[in-house]
Amino acid sequence: MNPTIRLLAVLVLCAVAAVGARSAAATTIGAPVNVTRDDTSQNETPLAVDPAHPNILLSGSNDWQYNDGCGMYVSADGGASWTGALPEGYLPGVTKFTNNPDVPGTGAYEVGGDPVVAFSPDGTTAYFVCQAFNFSPPYQAQLLLNRGTVSSTGITWQTTGLTSISTWNGKGKTKGGNGQFPDHESIHVDASGRIYVTWAQFDGLQGTHSPVLVATSTNGGQSFSAPVKVTSGNIRNNQDQRIVTAPNGDAYLTFDNGLQGGKGTVFYVSKSTNGGTTWSTPIQFASLVNPVCIFPTYCFNLSGGQFRAGGHVSVAGVRQLTQPVGRGLRRHRRVVRPDVRDLGVGERPHALDGSAGARRRAGRSVHG
Question: If you average pLDDT over residues 185-194, what whole number do you get?
């Protein structure tokens, strides 16, 4: 009988048991587990299982607490119980704040989010990527990697000195003053330990082009290569990129693309045979037929009763938006409410306060 593999979706614990080839497969749903134990909203919740220690699980979230960073949660018992980075459950080394207004954080940024997580092949190191940016000039936006040391009881994270992934050219690509920012990042670690981080580089006020970039590390995340641009020409408006690798080390990158002229959404794939140094010309392999449109609000195309889309703020979160409790909630209220209100009456989206952070936070809250 195969061992049980437990997976987490925040607030829900599912134990999936696979039986022998001669027996019918069975699925057991466990009781829900409160992972965050938090009174605010969380979304965008990744999950990684330690390959050498399957009882060690790592998850994260966009955390709306005062620290305004990436929520971080670890289980050492296969998902039955969860703890965060001591003492408050967020990734250290990203923002300037903790959840205590009187205690400064160990990071250099005002906001963090969009968490993605992974483990090294030998299970001794955990990788946590969190996007970090500032609301104030010059509106820097970076992707930061925290390398955690794994033990039998949990993960010990860096508090300073996180690895910068996306500051390679120094010509404004990682600054949000003109709306530029890296987003929708994902991480993959191959069997040799090579780390791939890929993201869409949104052009913001310069236009709608969002090329797919990939950076790699061969030294355990201590440094990354200069990002490689995978897309070009009329393959624009890309996001949701993911990388997997074959046993021989070949890497495959998929992403979705909004065709120019509002012609729908398609999927592309690109291949690298040299560890991410170069990538093949992307080819289209699938398209979405009558996809559900949930944003902007005027394009919603489902008939019937109530419909809940992934990634939006919960009812509890909406109630809290009206309360001036916590630095993160005040920012969330300021950024999200005017944008959603305006889009609801069909007006063109607009920048709220000129910062990449405001635009990004608003987009993340709607898109998920």
Answer: 97
